[in-house]
Design goal:
It is a single chain. This protein is α/β, with parallel strands linked by helices. 37% of the residues lie in helices and 17% in strands. The protein has eight helices and eleven strands. The strands form three sheets. It has a seven-stranded mixed β-sheet with strand order 5-2-1-6-7-11-10, sandwiched between helices. The chain has a two-stranded antiparallel ribbon with strand order 3-4. A two-stranded parallel ribbon has the order 8-9. Strand 3 and strand 4 form a beta hairpin. Helix 1 packs parallel to helix 5. It starts with a strand and ends in a 6-residue tail after the last helix.
C-alpha cells in the first residue's frame, strides 16, 4: 500500500469556500490519506459569503504535511504580509510532496516565495499580478510545474485537485474519484472565461472588484520589493 498522505488545507476568514470545498471533495477521497483544515486557532471562520468553516488544528500544532493546499478569496489580502502564515507555508512547502494553490491562493504562495521561476495560474482578474512574485504567468485552468500545482478561479480547483490526485496516487485513483463525484460538467452557458464572455459582462465584473484588484496590485508590488523580484510595469 502507498505511504499515508497527510493533507493540510489552509482556511482563513473571508476566503472563498469553493476554493476549499471543491478540492476537499476530491482530496478527501485519496486512498490512505487524511485531511486537516489548518488555521491560527480552531474557532469557526466564515468565508466572504458567510459560510462557516471549522479548522481542525492550529498552524503551530500542525504535523508536517505531504500535500499543502492554499485557497484564495478576498481574505487572501490579509495573509500576504502575515509573517506567521507565510513562514508556515514556506516551512511546510520545503518538505511537502506537492503544494497546490487555488485561485488567488497563488498570490499567497507567491508572497511566501514559492513562485520564483515557476509557471503558475490564478483567477483571471489576478493573472497579471503573478509577475511580481517572479512567476511565469499562464492563463490556463491548471498549471503543473514540478511539485507545484496551481488552479485558476474557484471551480478550477476541482480540475486541479484531480491532477494532484493523479500525481500522488496515479491516474486510476484520480479517475475513480472523478467518477464517484460524477464530475462531468455541462455548464448552461459558455462564458466561464473572459475570452468567451460578452465584453460588457467582463467589464462589469472588473468594475465590481476594481478596488480589491487595485489593493492586490499594491500588495504585490511590496512583495516584489521584499522578494527582490525585478518587475517592469
Amino acid at each position: 500500500m502507498a505511504d499515508h498522505l497527510n493533507v493540510g488545507m489552509l482556511v482563513f476568514p473571508r476566503m472563498d469556500q469553493v476554493d476549499l470545498t471543491g478540492p476537499f471533495a476530491v482530496l478527501s477521497r485519496l486512498p490512505n490519506a487524511s485531511v486537516q483544515l489548518l488555521w491560527k486557532d480552531t474557532k469557526p471562520v466564515r468565508d466572504y459569503r458567510g459560510l462557516g468553516l471549522m479548522p481542525d488544528a492550529r498552524l503551530t500544532e500542525a504535523e508536517p504535511v505531504d500535500l499543502l493546499v492554499v485557497p484564495g478569496g478576498p481574505g487572501q489580502e490579509d495573509l500576504m504580509e502575515d509573517e506567521g502564515v507565510l513562514s508556515f507555508i514556506t516551512q511546510q512547502a520545503a518538505r511537502a510532496k506537492c503544494v497546490f494553490s487555488v485561485c488567488t491562493g497563488a498570490l499567497v504562495c507567491g508572497a511566501a516565495g514559492l513562485l520564483k521561476g515557476r509557471s503558475a495560474t490564478t483567477h483571471w482578474r489576478s493573472v497579471h499580478l503573478l509577475k511580481y512574485f517572479g512567476a511565469v504567468a499562464k492563463d490556463q485552468r491548471v498549471v503543473v510545474d514540478g511539485t507545484f500545482v496551481s488552479a485558476a478561479g474557484l471551480t478550477a480547483g476541482i480540475d486541479g485537485a484531480l491532477r494532484v490526485a493523479e500525481l500522488l496516487r496515479g491516474s486510476d485513483s484520480a479517475k475513480a474519484i472523478q467518477l464517484d463525484l460524477q464530475y462531468a460538467p455541462e455548464p448552461p452557458f459558455d462564458c466561464g472565461h473572459p475570452d468567451k464572455a460578452p465584453a460588457e459582462l467582463v467589464a462589469k465584473l472588473k468594475g465590481a472588484t476594481e478596488k480589491l484588484t487595485a489593493q492586490r496590485l499594491v500588495t504585490a508590488k511590496r512583495a516584489a520589493a521584499r522578494l527582490k523580484v525585478p518587475v517592469e510595469d
